[in-house]
From TrEMBL:
Keywords assigned by UniProt, alphabetized: Membrane, Repeat, Transmembrane, Transmembrane helix, Transport
Compartments where found: Membrane
Source taxonomy: Bacteria, Bacillati, Bacillota, Bacilli, Bacillales
Xref: Pfam families: CitMHS, TrkA_C
Entry's Gene Ontology cellular component terms: plasma membrane
Chief subcellular location: membrane
Protein name per UniProt: Di-and tricarboxylate transporter
Gene3D superfamilies (UniProt xref): Regulator of K+ conductance, C-terminal domain
Organism of provenance: Lentibacillus halodurans
Membrane topology: Multi-pass membrane protein
GO molecular function per UniProt: monoatomic cation transmembrane transporter activity
Domain RCK C-terminal positions: 205-290, 298-382
Highest taxon listed in the record's lineage: Bacteria
PANTHER family with a match to the protein in the record: BASIC AMINO ACID ANTIPORTER YFCC-RELATED (PTHR43652:SF2)
């Protein structure tokens, strides 16, 4: 092994470690690795920037805009909501919802689909007393399965397609992946409707918890000089027997007093931490000398007159809030909204609100103005923003909705017939949407997830380094030395498992970029059809079911469904094994 190979390998291992421990955002971590490779001289400027001009990466950018344009009218959302209303049983509801969702995901990017339908399905569940956790992981999994059916179903497929073109190979056609994707999706959905459903947790939604579990929510009050019971005991101040509220902790400078006894003396500047019903906090605010600490000047009394509402927001993996405390991020001045509670792994974090350091997938219970949902629905800081107990009105425009769907179908037809390639078809679709004023240039910019593009482009540069230094060939030779005596099927399973493990660690597109050079080296050594290896890697990179961090849609529903990490392991592992068995056996018989 040469020095350059060893350097790249050590850099990749360090990158994996940083990603596993969530030290920083994935796109920033992978971009930093690319910069190090550039500064070290392993990559030239042209090689480092090659990913930013890759056809697959640019097609992903256009696909974000197309998906946003189609969904902007709210027509698909309204159709699906009406379709779901007629469901009577849990299984029937899942069939009516997730089969169409998988179909949509084959032709629209699944991230905006999950973002759009998460609040819809949550409200539908809560209105019927059903735990949203029974439906939200299946929503993510169904869209992932649907995305494996076509070239445009997920960014991973487009990235692999773009890399194959860079290698001088023929890329995927629109339905190349359907040979594997359709059977895998059908088997996966059957599993979700039967065994998977029983394995899912029965977690209440935010609205249900507020009504039914008063000790899940927190309020922080600061004692001012106007408090009439300064230097008096808790019991004398009347804070021991409050209806619907319980004083669990007093924070005094660096000291934390917990449990709070009835004899504890209250001092000026104390921060009183209560748990209880949200509605009971209104009464707490009426006590002179106690100020609500939510980081905002909005008052809980405003809930009564409708000038504010409670909002459920899930922190995204590209949020500027990540790895900062709520106080450090200046949440109040940025959003004019106050954080009442932070939920992680379906548990409220029992800490002073301002000191909580936010992570991807955290659910925030906010006290905000009535325009908060509208203003921040498209913000990169949040995956899902919805009012509790209500759903933001859909901006329904039927004519524009049907026009945008028609444009998409025409573009799909031109790709299917071979008149245009995917990049040209999507570019034309975006041009039509802009020219017809279906969307504005500003909206088009908002639809693009630039962090995803940076991650993909940076990963492509790292892939170049792996090929250039010979690391990809070295890894391929090592795998072949172990797997070749056991047969081609075992080698295919090895490639699938390794790609899938990378996906769970470093996200799907990055996993595909790192594994494809290795897969192509193995295909050349074995003298087998490279297309079969490419399809295998594309499916394996997309089939991220075991952790919430491997695929963006899993992270979107993580906080909204109140899931724990182990819920993904329990439900996703059997599904991952089913998809792996189906994919490897079909690919072996079709391409080899």
């Amino acid at each position: 092994m040469s020095f350059e190979m060893m350097f790249v390998l050590i850099l990749l291992l360090a990158m994996f470690a940083v990603l596993i421990f969530e030290v920083a955002r994935p796109d920033m971590v992978i971009f930093a690795v690319l910069v190090i490779l550039l500064l070290s001289g392993i990559l030239t400027v042209d090689e480092a920037l090659s990913g930013f001009s890759n056809e697959g990466m640019l097609t992903v950018a256009l696909l974000f805009i197309v998906a946003g344009s189609v969904q902007k009218s709210g027509l698909i959302d309204q159709m699906m909501e009406n379709w779901l209303q007629n469901s009577r049983t849990h299984t029937g509801s899942m069939l009516r919802f997730f089969v169409p969702m998988s179909a949509f995901s084959a032709f629209l990017n699944n991230t905006p689909i999950v973002v759009t339908f998460t609040p819809i399905i949550k409200k539908w569940c809560e209105d019927r007393g059903i735990a949203p956790s029974k439906f939200l992981i299946p929503l993510s999994y169904a869209t992932i399965l649907g995305g494996t059916v076509t070239l445009m179903g997920t960014s991973t497929n487009l990235v692999v397609h773009g890399l194959m073109l860079d290698f001088g190979l023929e890329g995927f056609s629109l339905f190349t992946l359907a040979v594997v994707g359709v059977p895998a999706a059908l088997i996966g959905l059957i599993y979700l409707f039967t065994i998977g459903y029983k394995l899912l947790p029965d977690n209440k939604g935010f609205s249900q918890q507020i009504r039914g579990d008063p000790k899940e929510y927190i309020a922080e009050m600061q004692v001012t000089q106007d408090f009439r019971y300064l230097d008096r005991r808790v019991k004398q101040a009347g804070l021991r027997d409050l209806k619907g509220l319980y004083l669990i902790e007093i924070i005094r400078g660096d000291e934390r007093i917990s449990p709070v006894r009835s004899t504890t003396v209250i001092q000026r500047g104390d921060r009183l931490i209560f748990t209880g019903l949200i509605s009971a906090i209104v009464d707490l605010q009426k006590i002179k000398g106690l100020e609500l600490e939510t980081g905002t000047n909005i008052d809980f009394d405003d809930l009564k007159d409708g000038s504010t509402n409670l909002v459920d927001a899930v922190v995204s993996d590209q949020s500027s809030l990540l790895f900062k405390s709520i106080k450090q991020s200046q949440f109040r001045s940025r959003y004019d909204a106050g954080v009442i509670a932070v939920h992680r792994n379906n548990e409220r974090i029992k800490s002073k609100v301002g000191d909580i350091v936010l992570k991807p997938g955290d659910s925030l219970l906010l006290l905000a103005g009535t325009d908060f949902v509208e203003k921040y629905q498209q913000s990169n800081d949040f995956f899902v923003v919805s009012s509790l107990g209500t759903l933001a009105d859909l901006n329904l425009n039927t004519k524009k909705g049907w026009f945008s769907i028609t444009v998409l179908l025409v573009m799909i037809l031109t790709v299917t017939l071979g008149w245009l390639n995917m990049f040209k078809a999507m570019a034309l679709a975006v041009l039509v949407f802009l020219a017809s004023k279906i969307i504005t240039p500003q909206e088009a910019k908002e639809y693009v997830h630039f962090n995803v593009l940076l991650l993909i482009a940076s990963s492509l540069g790292i892939g170049v380094a792996m090929r250039k230094t010979g690391l990809a060939g070295w890894i391929a030779d090592g795998l072949l030395d172990f797997g070749e005596p056991l047969g081609l099927v075992v080698i295919l399973f090895m490639i699938y498992i390794l790609t899938n493990v990378f996906t769970e660690i470093v996200t799907n597109s990055a996993a595909a970029v790192m594994m494809l050079p290795i897969g192509m080296e193995m295909a050349e050594t074995l003298s087998v059809e490279p297309m079969g290896i490419a399809v295998l890697i594309a499916i394996a990179a997309s089939a991220s079911f075991i952790t919430p961090i491997g695929y963006q849609t899993n992270l979107i529903v993580y906080g909204s469904g109140g899931y724990k990490f182990t819920d993904y392991v329990k439900v996703g592992t059997p599904l991952s094994l089913l998809v792996m068995m189906t994919s490897v056996l079909i690919i072996y018989h079709v391409w080899f």
